[in-house]
Write a structure and sequence with these properties.
The N and C termini lie far apart (50 Å). The protein is mostly helical and 123 residues long.
Length: 123
């Protein structure tokens, strides 16, 4: 239920077309997942990187469909509910790979920096 609540926040942010709200909701989904693990060390580690990951997710929405990201999280909830450890591990690995393989973050950052530089020069 707690993960579904976080998923609902993601869905609302898609409907609102708000990239910042979406990135925050996505981060909160993963925070909830860490909390559900009951692993305090993992939770502390998560909090150390949560801000950076909010930025990372926000950048990914510039190149990846938000509804597709919501669908990925919906699938994670389904696999977690089934409770089969090998399928959970596989789903989590696929989720991480999907994020990293689809997005050219270095290229995206370079384009954003170039765009900012052009705007500054034209002012």
């Amino acid at each position: 239920r707690r993960l579904k609540d976080r998923l609902h926040e993601m869905e609302k942010s898609v409907a609102a077309d708000d990239a910042y709200l979406f990135a925050t909701a996505d981060t909160n989904f993963h925070r909830e997942l860490c909390m559900l693990s009951g692993n305090e060390v993992l939770c502390r580690m998560w909090e150390q990187i949560a801000r950076q990951l909010t930025i990372y997710v926000g950048l990914s929405t510039l190149m990846k469909d938000r509804e597709g990201i919501v669908d990925e999280h919906r699938r994670l909830i389904s696999v977690l509910a089934d409770g089969k450890p090998d399928q959970i591990l596989r789903a989590l690995e696929e989720h991480i790979k999907a994020q990293n393989e689809v997005i050219d973050f270095e290229g995206l950052i370079a384009r954003q920096r170039a765009s900012t530089t052009r705007r500054r020069r034209s002012v």
